[in-house]
Specification:
about 15% strand, 2 domains, eight-stranded mixed β-sheet
């Protein structure tokens, strides 16, 4: 198996040693899935639809199409999908027609409705706040909060399936994009969100496509979004990145993301070169960037390009930390060149499935490369994107600025912020 063809969440079962072969990992993982119920009341509300579409898209990519959507068909009004119908979107998202025998044990996410079964996960967004659990009245009008709510719900469903947190499905969670340390403060009213153009997206894989997915539902304005990447869509891209489709295999990620954003009313400019120490922005180019490059050398020089604001989201990559992320803003309390002054520890211990693969192939280098690839899930990228885009918006409207945020989605109520 090629390193760019392995599903990045199936890889979890290999790296933890739960599966003794790649085939066994796929067989076991195919028991995972989620049910998503969409209530009828006010389902024409754009924010409600964003929660639903994000949850469906995330879950389908995570669980290889094992998503059972409980809803009749209706017309969508969200940017990018306006005028299409829900069942058309299910096809776009790759929902599998056949259902696994384990479907009865899948957790259920409820959107725009009430819990009716034990451990139903009711996802909600209320202006800058979002979470899972009971809330009487909510206003899902801030896009990053809607995306964050969906990502959190899929993460919680994953915890239930994995059994890695006894509280999963039995707890209420409330988080805030305005003031992370005070998630229960009253939601903010009457704040007009500025257009989201005049921006660079650097790196258009897992994180970059989550940024673009979120931005696509927001007002584009007249200024362009600069899209920078050199990579093409691979098989593994489909399991982590919110916009890539099977028809995009082999195509440049810049073109995929541009197509989406322009369908949502944005103007785009494509930068198909590597981000490195030689890059400098020109006075007429956007001075704000969302950074999504998982490369130490690039991150080390990210401040030298001349951006007035660079928001960097770093995701965990191993089987135990892939649901963790750290958000940093530059300029800020830390310096990028110092933070990434040294290369990470590259020592690699092969799990049993890789050792077994070595016995049947002469391509030892290929097996090592496969083993070194990150575990990943799109709900992590979407969750990080909610905070990254909100950081940009909060600064646009004169709100407080964060220097950093550390959080693990298995226990999102525990975090470090400054």
């Amino acid at each position: 198996m090629h390193s760019e063809s392995l599903h990045r969440l199936v890889k979890l079962l290999i790296d933890t040693g739960e599966a003794s072969s790649i085939g066994e990992a796929f067989e076991n993982f195919d028991r995972y899935g989620v049910k998503i119920r969409i209530g009828c009341l006010e389902r024409d509300r754009v924010g409600t639809q964003i929660i639903a579409l994000t949850a469906i898209n995330c879950a389908s990519r995570c669980f290889r199409g094992n998503v059972a959507v409980e809803s009749d068909d209706f017309e969508l009004t969200t940017p990018g999908f306006q005028g299409t119908r829900l069942y058309e979107f299910l096809n776009w998202a790759g929902i599998r027609k056949e259902r696994a025998q384990a479907m009865g044990r899948w957790p259920r996410i409820v959107i725009n409705g009430q819990a009716t079964e034990d451990r139903d996960l009711v996802a909600w967004a209320d202006r800058w706040r979002f979470g899972i659990g009971k809330i009487r009245d909510y206003v899902p009008d801030f896009v990053p909060a809607c995306v964050g709510a969906a990502a959190l719900a899929v993460s919680e469903a994953f915890s239930i399936l994995r059994g890695d947190n006894a509280c999963a499905g039995r707890r209420d969670l409330s988080l805030s994009l305005w003031e992370p340390a005070a998630p229960h403060i009253p939601a903010l009213d009457n704040i007009e969100i500025p257009p989201q153009g005049a921006l660079w997206l650097i790196g258009l894989g897992h994180l970059g496509q989550a940024y673009a997915w979120t931005l696509g539902f927001m007002s584009p304005g007249k200024e362009p979004v600069f899209l920078q990447d050199i990579d093409t869509v691979s098989e593994s891209t489909l399991s982590t990145s919110m916009l890539s489709q099977r028809a995009d295999l082999g195509h440049r990620k810049t073109r995929v993301v541009s197509r989406w954003l322009e369908s949502c009313g944005y103007r785009t400019a494509l930068i198909e070169r590597r981000f490195d120490e030689t890059q400098r922005i020109r006075p007429e180019e956007p001075a704000t960037a969302l950074f999504g490059v998982d490369n130490v050398a690039a991150r080390r020089v990210s401040e030298s390009a001349g951006y007035r604001l660079m928001v960097d989201a770093g995701l965990g990559s191993g089987p135990h930390d892939f649901r963790a992320f750290r958000l940093r803003a530059f300029p800020g309390p830390a310096n990028a060149a110092q933070l990434w002054a040294s290369e990470p520890n590259s020592e690699l211990v092969l799990a049993p499935a890789y050792e077994r693969l070595l016995e049947t192939t002469s391509d030892a280098c290929g097996v090592t490369t496969l083993a070194s690839r990150a575990v990943g899930a799109p709900f992590v990228g979407c969750f990080a994107a909610a905070y990254a885009v909100a950081e940009r918006v909060r600064r646009q409207i004169g709100g407080p600025a964060l220097g950093f945020l550390d959080l693990h989605m298995r226990e999102p109520e525990r975090f470090d912020v400054g």
